[in-house]
Amino acid sequence: MNELVGSHDLLLVTLDTLRYDVAAELAAAGRIPNLARHLPGGAWERRHAPGSFTYASHQAMFAGFLPTPASPGPHPRLFAARFAGSETTAGGTFVYDTPDLVSGLAAEGYRTVCIGGVGFFNKQGALGSVLPGLFQESHWEPEFGVASPASFEAQVARAEQVVAGLPRERRLFLFVNVAALHQPNWFHLPGATRESGDSRASHAAALEYVDRHICRLFAAMSSRRRCFAIVCSDHGTAYGEDGHTGHRVGHETVWTVPYAQFFLDSLEGPA
Asked: How far apart are CA 57 and CA 121, in angstroms?
């Protein structure tokens, strides 16, 4: 990362609440072609989330603790605050002297922009203002939130506006929290009704919806220069497994998340 910070634009996308098993199944079945074309070997990496719900997980990620590889470690981190005794800070780690990655990148001259999705980014109260408050610029509207069937399209449109309005020489760190996977997601499954509620199938349909539009986001972020992208989930969610529904619990469906990192080299088109 020491070779990338300062020369590349950076993109972090959290597919809020996305389960690893659903993401892996859809990639293997060819149901998310626009994402799969960027996954190393066409498959998601299996990782463990740093938290069991959005606020905790994002606080950790913005401190440099991205989802941890599921295999035994230690695993060197991409980003880390300078911290005596850290066993995961390596030679290639981008080390910053601020409390969080966002301000660390700002100190390197990056424009830091947040496009929020779920309620912890809505800026409608003190708690919903903490995470977006880390950024120099933050955006949230009801159209970006969990109740909107077109939330990701609206977020992508705002990202395109952000990129278009930034001087070409200015480096950009863009963070997008995608709300579409989070409940309620029943409206992404053809034929589903509010009464039928959310399910593992509607969760999968929501990921397919995101895949149909994500190439626009990738195109915007690769339009100015080479971009390093991280796409991952912050935590999963349960749909009745072992009696659990939702997240903020210590269950395999919650702790295990998909992760990918890759470069965006040129304008993107749909697969």
From this structure: 13
